[in-house]
Amino acid sequence: MSSKNIIADVFLEVANAIESGDFGPKVRIGLTTLGSEHGVENLVKGAELAKSKLFDIVLIGPKVDTDLEIVEVNEESEMHKKMEELLDSKYIDACVTMHYNFPIGVSTVGRVLTPGRGKEMILATTTGTSATNRIEAMIRNAVYGISAAKSIGIKNPKVGILNVDGARQVEKFLKELQSNGYGIEFAESMRADGGCVMRGNDLLAGTPDVMVTDTLTGNLLMKVFSSFTTGGDFESQGFGYGPGVGEDYDRKIFIVSRASGSPVVANALKYAYEAVLGNVSDVARNEYADAKKAGLDNIIASLNAKKEDKGEAEEVKMPDKEVVTHQIAGVDIMELDDAVAALWKKGIYAESGMGCTGPIVLVNEAKGEEAAAHLKEAGFIA
């Protein structure tokens, strides 16, 4: 479902509520107001901008001049304790806050407005740690991104994988999940060579609904997307760093930066409202169940086994050198040397290289098909 359709549905909901006079049980979204680099006033202004008949906003922080409800807290050290208390007691349904420490296995799913086409795009993920193994983390990030997208009304989100270290391995494993029945749909790069591994151009255009990346890169991208028009010290664009999503995580905590300005704070509150309506926690739980049916646990186990098996590298004799002009793409940068060594074991001379779309293995033209078949059999390419 497009953003236009989501907005249309919200307007229809508002119109029906106005006509009937029944807005139903109110969703309450909290907002902590201490800790911003731009002061309490900036956060309160964001809350005022977000005011709606669809949901109530509860400020958690010092007393200020506003019509909004305030749960008074005057120390930042006490603020998150109060927030957790209000969440766990169900007094609020979600909360927007800053600088929150999630447990390992939980990370946040950001939402930006791309400068190239003005399209919304989900960034999975932007803070937190989904797993300590990079490839495992990005696979989980894909599930988190799909969950967040579905919770805000995108029924069949198209997924792209940012061309960072590990992208090709992530592609291979996600496609394995897809072939085993997990309902993931892949985006196609806008560049001529296509594929679901996304280039910088796709970032600017918002090619996928969900862009999968490692969390540190996602955090950097959030900052660039949100403050590229302001010089960096005031985040004015987008919806913030998003909800903390995990396999079995129920607190709906949404993150903004200490540099987030009032427009981002307002959008983050609206993002929280949409994800509460779509019950992002339940969606994530269901997505995980589906991914596990498709073999997610086996994939994770194989990654951990591979990590443990990397002891002393086996010495492989290099075959006689040949002219290498045939390029084989799709091998991840982190496995490039291993892929070359695998071909040497088969008696095929190969070299590693870097093409315009990423890492490549170079072999003799006459041995291109044979080499590609060996690499596919060994799991280096999809």
Topology of this protein?
Elements: H1 3-20, E1 27-32, H2 39-50, E2 55-61, E3 69-72, H3 76-88, E4 94-97, E5 106-113, E6 120-129, H4 134-151, E7 158-162, H5 167-179, E8 185-186, E9 197-198, H6 200-205, E10 210-212, H7 215-227, E11 242-245, E12 253-255, H8 262-277, H9 280-293, H10 296-309, E13 326-329, H11 336-345, E14 350-355, E15 358-363, H12 368-377
Parallel strand pairs: 1-2, 1-4, 2-3, 4-12, 6-10, 7-8, 7-9, 7-10
Antiparallel strand pairs: 5-6, 5-11, 11-12, 13-15, 14-15
Helix pairs in contact: 2-8, 4-5, 4-9
Can you describe this structure?
- With 382 residues, this protein is of the alpha/beta class.
- The protein has 2 domains: 299 residues, Isopropylmalate Dehydrogenase; 66 residues, 2-Layer Sandwich (Alpha-Beta Plaits).
- It has 12 helices and 15 strands.
- Strands 1, 2, 3, 4, 5, 6, 7, 8, 9, 10, 11 and 12 form a 12-stranded mixed β-sheet that branches. A 3-stranded antiparallel β-sheet has the order 13-15-14, covered by helices on one side.
- Strand 7, helix 5 and strand 8 form a beta-alpha-beta unit.
- Helix 4 packs across helix 5.
- The two termini are 29 Å apart.
- 43% of the residues are buried.
- The mean pLDDT is 90.
- This is Fatty acid/phospholipid synthesis protein PlsX.
- GO terms for molecular function: acyltransferase activity, transferring groups other than amino-acyl groups.
- InterPro entries: FA_synthesis, Gly_reductase_pC_asu.
Quick recap:
This protein is of the alpha/beta class. The chain has helices at residues 3-20, 39-50, 76-88, 134-151, 167-179, 200-205, 215-227, 262-277, 280-293, 296-309, 336-345, 368-377, and strands spanning 27-32, 55-61, 69-72, 94-97, 106-113, 120-129, 158-162, 185-186, 197-198, 210-212, 242-245, 253-255, 326-329, 350-355, 358-363.
